[in-house]
Design a protein that fits this description.
The protein has 154 residues and is of the alpha+beta class. Helix content is 16%, strand content 37%. The chain is built from one helix and eight strands; from the N terminus they run H-E-E-E-E-E-E-E-E. A hairpin with a 7-residue loop joins strand 1 and strand 2. The relative contact order is 0.24.
């Protein structure tokens, strides 16, 4: 009986470790693109996407390994975040605190519900000379970190 219990417990631990290893090697949050909303090089809009199966909760954003002057989660109920996208005065784009809104998995977003449900997510950061952005987030209560090196603004 003790042997069976030991084998069962050991099997659960191995499967759990393999699952965590799989998640860490295939993180769910990805950065798709980034843009400057204006000629101001101290502001960047970074489009992010949840490729996982559950919601993602943002925890912290760092710019060049420091806390930025301003960081917001931007939710679009219509178009993706591109250079031509009108961000100010657009009724389909809303700004939120980082932990205020969870990021839904992209595979569950209803692409027919334009104007009604969130379609695209981005992070707006404001800091001088943005070279590197680090996003810390939780997925299935496990902490993850996504870091991206950005090219200098032109």
């Amino acid at each position: 009986m003790k042997k069976l219990l030991f084998v069962l417990l050991f099997s659960v631990l191995v499967v759990g470790a393999a699952f965590i290893f799989y998640l860490k090697s295939n993180p769910p949050l990805v950065m798709n693109s980034y843009t400057n909303p204006t000629d101001n090089s101290s502001i960047r809009i970074v489009e992010i996407e949840n490729k996982g199966l559950r919601e993602i909760e943002l925890q912290q954003i760092l710019v060049n390994d420091k806390v930025p002057e301003n960081a917001e989660l931007v939710v679009s109920k219509s178009e993706p975040f591109e250079a031509e996208t009108k961000l100010v005065g657009n009724p389909n784009i809303t700004y939120h605190k980082l932990r205020q809104v969870t990021i839904f998995p992209s595979q569950y977003i209803d692409r027919q519900a334009i104007g009604k449900q969130p379609q695209h997510y981005a992070v707006k950061v404001e800091a001088p000379s943005i070279n590197k952005i680090t996003i810390k987030y939780d997925y299935l209560k496990i902490p993850f970190t996504l870091t991206a090196e950005l090219q200098a603004a032109k």
